[in-house]
Write a structure and sequence with these properties.
- This protein is globular.
- It has 182 residues and is of the alpha/beta class.
- It has one domain (3-180): Alpha/Beta hydrolase fold, catalytic domain (Rossmann fold, 3-Layer(aba) Sandwich).
- It has a six-stranded parallel sheet, sandwiched between helices.
- It has helices at residues 18-29, 51-66, 79-90, 111-118, 137-145, 166-180, and strands at residues 3-8, 32-36, 71-77, 95-99, 124-129, 150-155.
- The longest helix has 16 residues, at 51-66.
- It is built from six helices and six strands, in the order E-H-E-H-E-H-E-H-E-H-E-H.
- Helix 3 (79-90) links the parallel strand 3 and strand 4 (95-99).
Length: 182
């Protein structure tokens, strides 16, 4: 079975974002074809209701399907994870992975983000640093407790960028995708 994943960068990032390059190597080792993208809106404000960014994810996903991949996941780093969750809410992929979900930055709750993640119907993994200031782990635990489709991986001592713990976050995502996309 041909398996693939669309990889979306964090805000302002590109397909060459270091965590996406690391994830590309990890996924290839499991026989999962990665397709990293750069959002067309990079360098400017996101599009209204993220229409352009969701279209970029959809285009990459559809291209992988057209190439014969039977199982396709959406994977996003931070902002890219938000966009993947919004698309997954409308068009569920075979799996969804979010690396560092900025679900509730300080003094900026994001009820739409919470609703999208809570409503997920596909297997979903959120890999989160337990000191992530943009995505408090307690919020993700609450959402996961009410949705059996959501798995959480806590990266101890890591913030939003994972820092020295990035290899652990990447490995957890790749192993999970390998098991779920079979």
């Amino acid at each position: 079975m041909k398996r693939a994943a669309v990889l979306a960068p964090g805000y302002g990032g590109t397909a060459e974002q270091p965590i996406l390059r690391a994830l590309t190597s990890a996924l290839e080792s499991f026989g999962i074809e990665p397709r990293a993208i750069t959002f067309r809106t990079r360098g400017s404000r996101p599009s209204k209701d993220y229409v352009s960014e969701m279209a970029d994810l959809r285009t990459a996903r559809d291209a992988l399907r057209a190439e014969g991949h039977e199982r396709v996941a959406l994977v996003g780093r931070s902002f890219g994870g938000r966009i993947a969750a919004f698309l997954a809410e409308r068009e569920p992929p075979d799996a969804l992975v979010i690396l560092g979900h900025p679900i509730a930055p300080p003094r900026r709750p994001r009820p739409r983000d919470e609703a999208a993640l809570a409503a997920t119907v596909c297997p979903t993994l959120v890999v989160q640093g337990d000191t992530d200031e943009l995505g408090p782990f307690a919020i993700l635990e609450r959402l996961a407790a009410n949705n059996p489709r959501i798995d959480l991986v806590r990266i101890a001592g890591a913030g939003h960028d994972f820092g020295a713990r990035e290899p652990e976050a990447v490995a957890a995502a790749a192993r999970w995708l390998d098991s779920v996309l079979r």
